[in-house]
Amino acid sequence: MKLSAKKIVYVSILISQALVLNIVESFIPVPIPVPGIKIGLANIVTLVTILMFGFKDSLIVVVLRTLLAQLLVGNITAFLFSVSGGILSACIMYIVYKRYSRYFSLVGVSVFGSVAHNVGQLLVASIVINNFLIFSYLPVLMISGIIMGIFTGFVANFFRKYIKNIEYNSRW
């Protein structure tokens, strides 16, 4: 499979944008100081990548953004939580976008991804601490995931019209 230089540049820019949003987000205080609740700004870029390029490239963006962020500011355990949530989120968002877009808007796709991200992180946490009671924390994370998913979905939807211009004016 031959990749064009143009596509490599676009995906690299998306990875950079996701990394910057991830780092900026770490400086934004969350109104409710509950562990694991984040805005999920980098998920905007994941949604944009799904719209522009599809599933494979969205996974590349998620994994490389997560790896680079953890190399800069985190540790290996945080990487496992983040990458598992990010991969599950990208998978669910892609499936909902491709198969159920007639039922769900981009905001709905984002909400599914946000909730999936939280489930993925709890799954890894339950394995790491060897205790599945951590899933009792899921209702709190689902509520925050729905709220944050709505926000990131609206932002990604705002960029959708600009993405279409890029899609139609380029051949990968």
UniProtKB/TrEMBL annotation:
Its EC number is 2.5.1.30. It holds the Pfam family Hpre_diP_synt_I. Keywords: Membrane, Transferase, Transmembrane, Transmembrane helix. Coiled coil: none annotated. The chain crosses the membrane at residues 36-55, 67-97, 103-125, 132-159. This is Heptaprenyl diphosphate synthase. InterPro entries: Hpre_diP_synt_I, Hpre_diP_synth_I. It is an enzyme of class 2 (transferase). GO terms for molecular function: heptaprenyl diphosphate synthase activity.
